[in-house]
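Annotated sample (chain length 130).
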Amino acid sequence: MFYRSNEHKRLYAMTLKDLHKPIYQMTPEFLSALFLLTSDNKLWNRAKHAVKMNELDFSKFNFIGINTDGYTLCKTAQDLFEGTCHIDFYDLGDSEAINNKIFGLIKSALQIKRDGCCALKLNLKGDIDI
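Output written by the structure step:
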């Protein structure tokens, strides 16, 4: 699993824990979108008020002041969660539009969407093992 930083790992794990529900009861779409939203601090600060258990309300997001990477992460999260098509394969293949670090985050989010909580390597207590 590729995280943007140790801070991203910590924030993602803490956010999941703060929802007070076992992650195996969370949808893969929600887990993958939340993974991307927590990878950028500015984005997360604008998105966290729109997060509830297994729900993300993208209409409540404020994009003012978000950089290109944050916008890409948010729209990809929305695509994973809602099934929309803001980001396509041409975007993913364009290294000028999406840098390697953002591409790595998107790949990890796709793995979470595919494998659900199993992608997060749970320990025996049900906590995320990061």
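Annotation: The longest strand covers residues 51-52.
Annotation: The chain has a mean pLDDT of 89.
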